[in-house]
Amino acid sequence: MKILFIGDIFGQPGRRLLKEKLPELRKELQPDLVLANAENAAAGFGITPPLVDELLDLDIAVLTSGNHIWDKKEILPWIREQVNGRLLRPANYPPDAPGRGLFVGKTPAGTGYAVINLQGRVFMPTLDCPFRKADELLHSIPEDVKIRIVDLHAEATSEKQAMGWYLDGRVSAVLGTHTHVPTVDEIVLPHGTAYITDMGMTGPYESIIGMERQAVIQKFLDQLPTRFEVATGDVRLCGVLLELDSESGRALSIQRILRK
């Protein structure tokens, strides 16, 4: 089984390139399932209901998110009332937060799979423990669902690595999002879990993590409130291709994907 996971989709440039390149990637890589992190799809901050529909219409099975999931106020009632549960928020938000962080479904071929969305706590807003939340969610997934993918939206490389080792052998993959900077440490851990610290973003790389450079530099210089705008140069699609054993859920390989 092959799964293509698209890294953080950033603003209109990221959405535009995704629409352009995803059909080519489907033809080339022939994934059984496409997943994506979409928390920055709306001008770099959050996501709106129309953009959820726009991305799901590309036949992306599940959208994950992170700390920017609540940035657009209109997503709050929508995520609470969504029927199919295909837009996730980090599962370790307090229980009263709308939405959920686990999706269990089947591929068009009938293979069961689960997607878990977690958020780190180091240099991030204080949430419930993602490690204990992962344990809790794994106990709730039916035993016959062997394909289990974790999006860990976190800042610290140490926290992401710790989660990879903690879940090794219990999930198919632990994939890092949030920093928008792709790392080159993809590996299949000893007990069969694919891991990468950060898949990178699908958006403009002639930027500072997606935003126009000068405003961000000025913010560092004077520490004054600044309006950030999405950059437009050097747009790339980043993510990973996982090859998994559908019987055991173990990862066979993980490959970084980059397209311009």
Task: Please tell me about this protein's structure.
The protein is of the alpha/beta class. It has a single domain (2-259), classed as Purple Acid Phosphatase, chain A, domain 2 (4-Layer Sandwich). The chain contains 6 helices and 12 strands. The protein has helices at 11-29, 49-56, 75-81, 130-140, 157-167, 213-222, and strands spanning 2-6, 33-37, 62-64, 102-106, 112-119, 147-153, 173-177, 187-188, 194-196, 203-206, 233-244, 251-259. The strands form 2 sheets. Strands 1, 2, 3, 10, 11 and 12 form a 6-stranded mixed β-sheet that branches. Strands 4-5-6-7-9-8 form a 6-stranded mixed β-sheet, covered by helices on one side. Helix 4 (130-140) links the parallel strand 5 and strand 6 (147-153). The mean pLDDT is 96.
Question: What layout of secondary structure does this protein have?
Answer:
Elements: E1 2-6, H1 11-29, E2 33-37, H2 49-56, E3 62-64, H3 75-81, E4 102-106, E5 112-119, H4 130-140, E6 147-153, H5 157-167, E7 173-177, E8 187-188, E9 194-196, E10 203-206, H6 213-222, E11 233-244, E12 251-259
Parallel strand pairs: 1-2, 2-3, 5-6, 6-7, 7-9
Antiparallel strand pairs: 1-11, 4-5, 8-9, 10-11, 11-12
